[in-house]
Amino acid sequence: MPFIPHTEEDISAMLASIGANTIDDLFDEIPPSLISAGLKQVPPGMSEMDVTRLMLERAEADGRYLSFIGAGAYEHHIPAAVWQIFKIFSSAHVCRTCTFPFIL
Questions:
Q1: What is the predicted pLDDT for the residue at 72?
Q2: Within the chain, where are the H helices?
Q3: N or C: which end of the chain has fewer CB within 10 A?
Q4: Residue 43 gets which letter from DSSP?
Q5: Where are the chain's structural domains?
């Protein structure tokens, strides 16, 4: 399921439907002593490409495999959104003579 962020109007309508004024009102039963000011051990967020690079760097300790596939196949970054689109198209009818699935 794709992530589509809610608009401020959406959020206000949802909160009004349950009788809350703010999102913080949803957590008012949690004692203040249990609420964390932040996660100091967690580093700041990274982009998908940066995480991929980091994981590849860490995997280098295990050694890298060699790819002899050729024919234009090479290692490159493919964003997660592209895989999601591919999954949508591949669940439809696939044109067997094409390199990318199309809806027939």
A1: 67
A2: 8-18, 48-59, 80-90
A3: N
A4: P
A5: 7-36, 48-90
